[in-house]
Design goal:
The structure holds 2 protein chains of 2 kinds. Chain A has 5 helices and 13 strands. Chain A is an alpha+beta fold. Chain A has a 5-stranded mixed β-sheet with strand order 3-2-1-4-8. A 5-stranded mixed β-sheet of chain A has the order 11-10-9-12-13, sandwiched between helices. A 3-stranded antiparallel β-sheet of chain A has the order 5-7-6. In chain A, β9 and β10 form a beta hairpin. By secondary structure, chain B is an alpha+beta fold. Classes of the chains: A alpha+beta, B alpha+beta.
């Protein structure tokens, strides 16, 4: 697995929380009011990070998936990036410029794109550079939740990833995707359940086909969440 | 669903020192390759010279063989003499002389005797007083053991003995 063996820190940044885990221990968990506060918490931690490199996990509210259906005549990575760029505003409601990542998929099949605001990325790089720290990875925490879920023996048809500010739903049969969306802001369990119910009503998935992973900053109780980033903060539910 | 390797971290740029180090390593590799290439070229040239030398020797050997073969097929300059000597050695000269000594006809004298051992021919020139004596001499020769004699030519003059040439194949 590409993230196993990290000797640095795992940093979580969301619009409602900031957290740091080192060597499978939660060393810092701080609820916040908004993104600016979360960034301030990050800036305060960096001088005392004690590490030269760290992985940065973004919440679903800051890093959003989009499902790109196959488009005839579109070929090449650059063209797919432009298609994804054109969809960001509609999918996320963002107006500011965004950076998009698009996976490579077989022609004629849906593929996933992920968007994050460029200003946020720039700010994160600036903060890290100012403290001589290198981000060895920047990506959505729900992405690692998906990776960990796919390694479990029991798999659902829909994965619901809940974190401090969003509910990200990913679904599909076999290796294909037919669902990739984020509901944000979703700041508590009730809101998450409501969003999930709405999604289930409009899809052919049933509640028993949904498996859930939650990153919670509510308590620091020891959990055995397996090999997933920020594991001390993670709960699984079938 | 499948795993997604989402990545927004910028690719790590190598520090300038690393680029310099890489350049030095590449330059050293290039130099080493250049030296090896030069050494290989030298070796190749030496081998080529060796091949040319061996080819030249082979050609000379071949030429010598051809010459020897040609010589073997050429008759040796003394071969004819040697053969003549060998044939003379086998020529029954004693028998010839004994034959000539046994034939005596009054007035007929052997003037010369030529032996050609290679052809096995004997040419004898005789003087004779008259035709009758010559014919008696020829008959006497042919009555001896040995090859037959024949009269090749005869000259007669009224005032002096005639000469005749008698030939026999031995």
């Amino acid at each position: 697995m590409w993230w196993v063996g990290s000797k640095g820190a795992d940093v979580y940044l969301g619009t409602r929380a900031f957290a740091v885990c080192k060597r499978e221990e939660a060393v810092l968990v701080q609820p916040t009011e908004d993104l600016a506060q979360s960034l301030a918490r990050l800036a305060a931690w960096l001088p005392q990070s004690g590490t030269r490199a760290a992985r940065l996990w973004l919440s679903g509210g800051l890093c959003r998936p989009m499902l790109l259906q196959p488009v005839e005549g579109i070929a090449g990575d650059e063209e797919w990036r432009r298609v994804a760029q054109s969809m960001v505003g509609m999918q996320t409601g963002w107006t500011a410029p965004s950076e998009v990542w698009v996976e490579r998929a077989a022609a004629g099949t849906p593929r996933i794109a992920v968007a994050v605001q460029q200003a946020l990325l720039a700010q994160l790089q600036e903060l890290a550079g100012a403290h001589r720290l290198r981000w060895s990875h920047i990506g959505p925490w729900w992405g690692d939740g998906l990776r960990a879920a796919l390694q479990m023996p029991q798999r659902g048809r829909v994965l619901a990833v809940r974190d401090c500010d969003s509910l990200t739903l990913l679904g599909g049969d076999g290796a294909q995707f037919d669902l990739a969306t984020t509901y944000a802001p979703v700041v508590d369990a009730d809101a998450a359940d409501a969003a999930l119910s709405r999604m289930l009503m409009s899809s052919d998935a049933t509640p028993d086909q949904v498996w859930r992973i939650t990153l919670s900053t509510a308590s620091l109780a020891t959990r055995d969440a397996g090999e997933v980033a920020l594991a001390p903060l993670v709960e699984w539910a079938a | 669903m499948r795993a997604l390797k989402v990545e927004f971290a910028p690719r790590r740029k190598l520090p300038v020192a690393a680029w310099y180090a890489m350049a030095v390593v590449l330059a050293a590799l290039a130099a080493q390759q250049g030296v090896e290439a030069w050494q290989l070229t030298q070796r190749q040239q030496a081998l080529r010279a060796k091949v040319d030398q061996l080819r030249g020797e082979s050609d000379r050997q071949e030429q010598l063989r051809e010459e020897a073969k040609a010589k073997a097929s050429m008759p040796l300059p003394y071969a004819q003499d040697a053969a003549a000597v060998a044939k003379l050695a086998r020529f029954p000269i004693e028998r010839l002389l004994a034959t000539l000594e046994s034939v005596q006809i009054v007035g007929v004298k052997v003037v010369s005797l030529n032996v050609e051992p290679a052809q096995g021919e004997v040419r004898m020139e005789v003087e004779y007083p008259d035709q009758g004596a010559l014919l008696k001499y020829l008959a006497a020769l042919n009555s001896t053991e040995g090859p037959a004699w024949r009269l090749q030519q005869a000259q007669f003059a009224a005032t002096q003995p005639g000469t005749a040439t008698l030939v026999s194949q031995w």
